[in-house]
Amino acid sequence: MTSTFPNISISTERLVLRPLDTDDVPALAEMMNDEQVAAWTDVPRPFTEEAARTWITEYAPAERSAGNGLDLAVTEFLTQRLVGLIQLTRTNWHVRSTEMSYIVAPWARGEGYASEAALATAQWLFGDQKFERVELRTAADNTASQQVAQKIGCISEGVLRNACIAHVRVEGGGWSDVRTDFIVWSLLPEDIEGADGQLADTGGFTRYPDWN
């Protein structure tokens, strides 16, 4: 029997992490069309609202149902504005391990949202889901992503040489692929023991009914 993540809402002092909804289509498309997102991810370029709708209504539910992972919209508690995305992939239910990545919208950068959302997700994985390992992979030149990994307590385990494809703008406005290294990070339950107080005022976890 395949294990799957529940539909979950995770609340912190400033954020609510919840399942993606079709109301997120315009903001998700705008976020994924940002230059930095295009540079460090393999999403289609340009990223259309049709692609956003397909992601929300087909890809994300299928990945969750298959036990592969979970996509969570990161929204501001007060404004309900979409400010980012947390994605869990390559989940191994026997090992109780998953890979986490995060994206922050250009209109929300510099607020510490990525680390707050990532730490809350890790605490939920270790506490509620009894996971034993969270893995992150950051491109060698993506210093912002590396800073988030360090901030939440991740330990750098090594380098996967030439394992990442990033993207750069070329003359004429197009994009070109460039190869670079992946830095591999891990987070174990004991790594975030000192960070528990940072989210002491969280609203906890709320399970959603099936939404797909």
Architecture overview:
- The chain has helices at 25-32, 35-40, 49-65, 113-127, 143-151, and strands at 8-11, 15-19, 70-76, 82-92, 97-104, 133-139, 155-169, 175-187, 204-207.
- It has a nine-stranded mixed β-sheet with strand order 7-8-6-5-4-3-2-1-9, with helices on both faces.
- It contains five helices and nine strands, in the order ββαααβββαβαβββ.
- Mean pLDDT is 89; it is low at 196-203.
- The chain is of the alpha+beta class.
Overall average pLDDT: 89
**Silhouette:** globular
Radius of gyration: 17 Å
Query: Helix content range of the residues, please?
Result: 25-40%
Stretches where pLDDT falls below 50 for ≥5 residues? Answer: 196-203
Number of strands: 9
Spatial arrangement of strands, main beta sheet:
7-8-6-5-4-3-2-1-9
Order of H and E elements: EEHHHEEEHEHEEE
Structural class, by secondary structure, is: alpha+beta
How big a fraction of the residues is strand?
A: 25-35%
* Number of helices, where a helix is a run of at least 4 consecutive DSSP H or I residues: 5
End-to-end distance, in Å?
20 Å
**Major beta-sheet overview:** 9 strands, mixed
Which key terms come to mind for this protein?
26% helix, 5 helices, 212 residues
